[in-house]
Structure formats: structure tokens, C-alpha cells
Design brief:
It is a single chain. Helices cover 3% and strands 47% of the residues. It is mostly beta strands. It has one domain. The strands form two sheets. Strands 1, 2, 3, 6, 7, 8, 9 and 10 form an eight-stranded antiparallel beta sheet that branches. The protein has a two-stranded antiparallel ribbon with strand order 4-5. The radius of gyration is 19 Å and the shape is globular. It starts with 19 loop residues before the first strand and ends with a strand.
Length: 134
């Protein structure tokens, strides 16, 4: 079976992997990360007579994961961040940008891989996905 690519067919189909990560303009080595722009969470409400409907509760959008502790950054400084800008360049060409985020939790550095956890949270509209098709 032979086929040819249309002129508009992307040849770079990389969806995940290599990522660039910066906090307040400083590049940080990132081991893994996740992000969630949601500002509401829906839950189904049931009773003994069936499904009654759903409820909706506010949640904080976040960017979280694990950074690598290198000589170029201060782990202690992350715990004091309360107005951070986080920029993530994804392998698929999109950007995730968070403004006015605060650091949540404790870093807990792992001696085996020099990794430490991070989680930045914000309010509605503080985390944007740029470059996605609508």
C-alpha cells in the first residue's frame, strides 16, 4: 500500500518527551510534570433511587511534577514563591503558561535522583494553553 503525504500533513509527529521549563525566567531541569487548567470539578450525585444529577465544586488549576536539584537553583527559594510565572514548552509545539501562581507543599529532595516535588497553583484564568487547535 503506498500513499503520499499531502502538503499540509505534519511530518513531525512527536507528542511527548523533550520539554523546556522555566520559573520566573530561569530554566529548570524537569524530570516529569503534569498540568490541569480546570477550575471546576463535576461529581455525579446518586441516591438509592438512581442518578440524581451532579454537583460542581471549584478547584485550583495547577502545574506540578518533579524538578532536578542542580547547583543552578535553590530548592529553599521555591517554598517562598507566591507570584510565579511558569512557562513550559511542550514537545508537540504547545506552550503552557501560568501567571500569578503560588508554590504549594514541601519540596522533599530525593537523594537517589536529586529530584524534588513541585506544585504551583492559581485561580481561574491563570494557566493558559497556547498553540492548541480549538
Amino acid at each position: 500500500m503506498s500513499s503520499t503525504l499531502a502538503p499540509s500533513t505534519p511530518t513531525n509527529r512527536r507528542l511527548a518527551g523533550t520539554t523546556a521549563f522555566a520559573v520566573n525566567g530561569t530554566a529548570i531541569s524537569v524530570i516529569e510534570f503534569a498540568w490541569d487548567p480546570a477550575v471546576f470539578e463535576n461529581s455525579t450525585m446518586t441516591s438509592l433511587s438512581g442518578v440524581d444529577g451532579f454537583d460542581q465544586k471549584p478547584v485550583a488549576p495547577y502545574i506540578s511534577g518533579k524538578f532536578r536539584d542542580t547547583g543552578a537553583n535553590s530548592v529553599t527559594s521555591f517554598t517562598g514563591l507566591t507570584n510565579a510565572t511558569v512557562v513550559v514548552l511542550l514537545a508537540n509545539g504547545k506552550q503552557i503558561v501560568g501567571h500569578n501562581l503560588w508554590y504549594v507543599g514541601r519540596p522533599g529532595v530525593n537523594g537517589a535522583d536529586a529530584g524534588f516535588d513541585f506544585r504551583f497553583e492559581g485561580t481561574a484564568g491563570t494557566i493558559m494553553e497556547i498553540g492548541a487547535s480549538s
